[in-house]
What we know:
Layout: E1 2-3, H1 20-28, E2 31-35, E3 40-42, E4 50-56, E5 59-64, E6 70-74, E7 81-82, E8 97-100, E9 104-110, H2 111-119, H3 126-153, H4 156-169
Parallel strand pairs: 1-6
Antiparallel strand pairs: 2-9, 3-8, 4-7, 4-9, 5-6, 5-8
Amino acid sequence: MHARARPSRPAAVEGVQLEAAHLHRLLAVSFRRSYPSRHVIFQPGEKATTLYYVQSGRLALYGTHDDGQELVLDYPGPGSFIGQVGMFMESHTRQSSLQTRGPAVLFEITYKRLKALLQDEMADIAVPLLFAFGRDTAMRLRSTSRSAMDLAFLEVEARVENALQALAAGRDSVAHSRG
Length: 179
């Protein structure tokens, strides 16, 4: 059974914008891959070598406890970067799993190739790209911190209310005429 997480948001940075042209340049040097529903893209223990960008589809980023219980950490969707932390850590291994929730299209680029490009032919867009990666990471950290505080300090009813409000505010939410 999956626990719920707050939906992630697309990459954008106040003051430093990741413009469509910047993203297009990154995607032009990345590999586009289509995945079927329920496909596991990576798992804990695997060496982190790749940055992902979600073009379409919904995914679940989750951790698994030794007893087999799973906790959903995020539901990345279109516009989300995944795996950016590994770009800044040498010999990093994945700590979570990423699985598609339906058909999905992702762009992938190895950290090694991306680092080389950012130091050379894409140096002019390195700052906006790195800010976008950092902002996505900061938003996930904020969401995780909020969830940990909710678990520690709120009663069950308040936690459920917060989770429902977060889901209602997410990008998959739909307004209904009867509320």
